[in-house]
Amino acid sequence: MSWRAILGVVALNAWFLVVGVGVLFALRGWRSWGELARLCGLAYMLGIAATAVVLVWALVLTVPFSVATVIGAGALVALVAALAGGRTGRRLPSRPRPRVPGWSLVATVSAALVVVYCEAQFRAGRLASLTEFDGWFFWVAKARAIFSFGDLDPQFFRELPHHGYPPLVPTLEAAAMRFMGSADVVTLHLQFWFLLVGFVAALVGLLAPRVRPLFLWPPLLLVLVTPRVSGYALQAQADFLLEELLAVAALLIGLWLVDRSDWQLVAAGIVLAAAMLSKREGALFGACVVLAGLGATWRQRRTAWPRLVGVGVAAAAATLPWWILLHVRGLGAETPEAGGIGLFSHLDLAWPSLKLTFSTLFDYHQWLLVVPVAALAIAGAFVAGARRLPSYALLLFVFGAAALTYTTWAFPSIPITKAPVNPIIRLTGWLVLVTPAVIPLVLNEGWDAE
Amino acid sequence: MSRRAAAAPLLVLVAALAYPVAVLSGGLPRFPTRAECIHPAKEGVPLEAVFGRFDLRAGAEARFQRVLAAGFKGTKIEPDGCGRLKVDVAGIPNLAVGHDLLKEAAKVGLTATLESVP
Description:
The structure holds 2 protein chains of 2 kinds.
Chain A: H1 3-27, H2 33-38, H3 40-60, H4 67-87, H5 105-126, H6 133-149, H7 154-159, H8 168-180, H9 189-207, H10 213-224, H11 227-232, H12 239-259, H13 262-276, H14 280-296, H15 301-317, H16 320-328, H17 350-361, H18 364-367, H19 370-384, H20 388-409, H21 424-449
Chain B: H1 3-24, E1 47-54, H2 57-69, E2 75-79, E3 85-92, H3 95-107, E4 113-116
Antiparallel strand pairs in B: 1-3, 1-4, 2-3
């Protein structure tokens, strides 16, 4: 808890942004410096995703973990990106010319509210204590081990609970600790503040030029003020990072459905890889995003499906080093207790699990009216005659709800309850965070179709 | 740049500045220190004798062994709530007993402080 620790976190996240700008240059470049400023949120999310994935690979390969490793991993990503961008003949735009885009009243007032909200979150996060159970039980414990030992210490990671959970979040937390200069578990919450701000900035940057302000800002504000997001988004555990990454990936694939620009799929692949290395559920929910894309492109499956499947396969392949390490160390992957055909031995749990999913998604005390609003928006867009994006959003929610049901059904030892012993409330957050990412596109398409 | 176009980002900037200005008008941000995990001893509350605080387990372990060897049974290593480990003897009923314990410790070359248990 000091200025030095805060500056350390700021420096780390500035580095992620720099790396992400390099990745963005390779993927699509920018026509003006104003466009780059607008896409800084996306660049940050790409930078953190790409750097963190490389850091996990480095840990698997027993590269000692230090500030130099974090900088080196980012530099490697930026170098590869710059070379790739250079090979495609991308050039930087000429000198910046000050130009302020026209802002509507809705955009202006909403942006002011979001900025003040983020400032208030910063104030809360600066002195937040590490009270979240999973946070101190194993997420931050793993981070402290990486910080202290400089590697994935075999004995420590064998004896710690949930050794099979992917290590991206502890790696990120350990990087923050290195930059802070100590295992400061209080200031660590600011790392998650940067992720929340990056997520919001990515959504706004990608959507602002494409959708009407009235479709973009109210869903975003609604999600930000839900009790769950406003109270728990800065927790030092993996849930919100996973959900933010999934929502950005879902948005990028949604944009690809409209634009068919390959850079959007590559960016989605990078973000999905990080999501899959964040939590076990990352693979399941990531598959839902890809499947929704496949469903929405049924009529163009010959051209679209190989690309979408390629995104999913590439993202999953990025997690292979971690699973290989677990195998080499003789550690289990902590797969579901009743996964696969085991589900049929617990058919009695199917209906209660589904009911729990829906009662949580529609729980006003957790998520306000986010999911009902999303459902109405999808229905309204269908009625207006839109098909492509409402279908995508509908499939996202259907597959997402099925996946959430599976997370309860496949663990018979976990009580079917909203109590913290069952992670269902935390997990439903992914569909809630998908809402401000995808629903604005759905509403816009519905409006244009009418 | 038209006046109207400039007004929108200006409004956001004003909102962005208003919040921190309002917060900082009450003084600069306070950073709690590790000293705030040390609670001075007072009568009427549970007390403990603390034989040192350590950043590393090894340091705490060495002090723990030394205190134990000096005959202070019930010595423990515990987190102090501020990211450090403390070597302490808890269960001291009052200040008088506590001061006697500190004198005993001093006789064998150990320094301890009497603190309230939070």
